[in-house]
Design brief:
The structure holds 2 protein chains of 2 kinds. By secondary structure, chain A is mostly helical. Chain A contains 3 helices and no strands. By secondary structure, chain B is an alpha/beta fold. Chain B has 6 helices and 5 strands; from the N terminus they run αααβαβαβαββ. The interface between A and B is medium-sized, with 14 and 23 residues.
């Protein structure tokens, strides 16, 4: 056996492959030898609440929520940057301060814009 | 004076009952020396009977007793049956715990059909066995065994958790006695034994059909 530093990874890979394969093989053999498969209409049904599935799952629904997902990003990103901004506030240079204020202004502008368009009201 | 005939010692019960042509005494001797003799059938049944996963659903007040059996005071986990599965695909045991109304009966049968083999059914309480106090009514099924084969009946109204545990132990004994091959092989090993049972539909006045004649026939009147 060679002493490759990563040789044990090959061993792990072998065990990781053999373990599930042996189990699957035993299950397969068991079905072949002792326990015949018995599929059926209700057994193969998707729904498992005791009720029969009714209707078509391919329905259309309104993707209205995406606006709120986008608006959430405003607050999400703002919080992400406000915390380091507050920590480093006293040692910031003037340029960095103005850059940060501009950034917050841009985000706030997006919020104001969506508010004016009435996107904050659920319709 | 010693008895030459080998008799199984009643003092220490063997973990596995006798299999093959080794007597219980010899096996007990071997076991004391750290050698466990068993057969695949016994090992299979031993594993199965000690890890019964029930289907998690309750139909009436018996379900409260079933829940109590799962709590710390009665602790069904001592018998390996604490893993109540929310899906019939993963369940071995259906505990019909309570009144099966005719509205509910098709759903119970469909859930039974969706359980994979090997599967077992416990009818818990008077209602699941026969309709109980509602037997003379119009809307309660007079026993779930009219539609699906029941392995263990637990009488009571409702049965106490100890009774459910006793029923579970009886079921474990039943599973341990099952055969893999031969003429009296277990139901799930026989290809011709059905795994799905006809699901009744709501008729104008009753379920249609009102029973599955393959699993239940009305008791004949006692002959004089």
């Amino acid at each position: 056996m060679n002493d490759h530093p990563y040789g044990f990874l090959a061993l792990f890979l072998g065990v990781a492959l053999a373990f599930p394969l042996i189990m699957l093989a035993v299950a397969w053999l068991w079905v072949r030898c002792f326990q015949p498969a018995k599929p059926g209409v209700s057994k193969n049904a998707t729904y498992e609440c005791g009720l029969e599935a009714s209707g078509d799952p391919w329905i259309q629904f309104k993707a209205h929520y995406y606006l709120y997902a986008i608006l959430f990003l405003i607050f999400d990103v703002e919080v992400l940057f406000l915390l380091p901004f507050a920590v480093a506030f006293t040692s910031l240079s003037t340029g960095a301060l103005f850059a940060m204020l501009l950034f917050i202004l841009l985000l706030a502008e997006g919020l104001v814009w969506s508010w004016q368009r009435g996107y904050l009201e659920w319709k | 004076m010693s008895d030459p005939a080998p008799t199984p010692s009643p003092a220490a019960p063997a973990p596995f009952p006798a299999a093959g042509n080794i007597s219980d005494t010899d096996r007990e001797d071997l076991r004391r020396h750290g050698i466990l003799m068993t057969s695949m059938e016994e090992l299979y049944n031993w594993g199965r009977s000690n890890s019964i996963w029930p289907l998690q659903f309750g139909l009436a007040c018996c379900a409260i007793e079933m829940i109590a059996a799962a709590t710390a005071r009665f602790d069904i986990a001592r018998f390996g049956a604490e893993i109540f599965r929310p899906s019939p695909r993963q369940a071995d045991l259906m505990i019909v715990s309570g009144t099966v109304t005719k509205k509910m009966a098709p759903l119970v049968v469909r859930l039974w059909n969706q359980m994979p083999e090997p599967k077992y059914c416990i009818a818990m309480g008077a209602c699941a066995i026969s309709g109980g106090p509602f037997k003379q009514g119009y809307n309660v099924l007079k026993g779930i065994d009219r539609f699906i084969p029941v392995d263990i009946y637990i009488p009571g109204c409702p049965p106490r958790p100890e009774a459910l545990l006793n029923g579970l132990v009886q079921l474990q004994k039943k599973i341990k006695a099952e055969k893999l091959t031969g003429p009296d092989a277990a139901r799930h090993t026989r290809p011709e034994a059905p795994s799905e049972f006809p699901i009744p539909v709501y008729g104008a006045h009753d379920l249609e059909p009102t029973k599955n004649p393959a699993v239940w026939s009305p008791p004949s009147p006692p002959s004089a």
